[in-house]
TrEMBL record:
This is SAM-dependent methyltransferase. Transmembrane segments: none annotated. SUPFAM superfamilies: Tetrapyrrole methylase. Coiled coil: none annotated. One of its GO terms (molecular function) is methyltransferase activity. The keyword Amino-acid biosynthesis does not apply. GO terms for biological process: methylation.
Amino acid sequence: MSAADATKGTLYLVPAPLDFGCDGEAALAEALPEGTLRRAAQITHWICENAKSCRAYLKRIDALHPLAAPLQQQQIGELPREVHKKGDHGGKSHASFDAKALLAPLLAGHDMGLVSEAGMPAIADPGSSVVRAAHALGARVVPLVGPVSLLLALAASGLNGQNFAFVGYLPQDAGERAQRIRALEALALKTGQTQLFIETPYRNAALWQALLQHLQPDTRLAIAAGLTLADAQVHSRSVRDWQQLPLPAGKHTPAVWALGL
């Protein structure tokens, strides 16, 4: 590390509990390691998806480890809404987001925290543009230990954890969604690769019906919801066995889905 790099702050990737959007809250001291919470309490400059959610999380941390600065004095910057909707990396319809401007405190020597509303930032959530910008600026990037819903769901599914892919959201259009489901199933059956995906909670019921309609009877389908909460649910069965059962996670519960062998 050069002398110039040594004067920069560190970007910490701070996991959040997985209870965002759930009816209850996880016990913070059980959902995240003490070291993660203690480090987070020392940070006073933040980049987040939503400032209100970030403040609520910091308030929960403060109850266990006093914050280095009062909540009102925490410097909190939000990622642009376009990043939430279209992603960090750019694509056919939009350019990649340059997050360097958000990292000005880092260049001034302040440590910064990147936090999402649930789980590990930049994993199934915005934030990778901030991480790329920190690397481009020569700053140190440190991921802290905490829950990652995709990996917890995969581990508890009984599906192949040696070969898997996260494919984000499935299409909203019924015809496109059916085509995508069949394509993912074909890939899983051909390669053994588990396919992980998520959905906006209020679309759970429609996704559930589409999966049961378009997947083959012997394909295995798993759903995990409320992970790390007291009422967490993880269910994994063949589509044939699911046919006579209701959606286990409820219509409005954040969930991770997986299909495969």
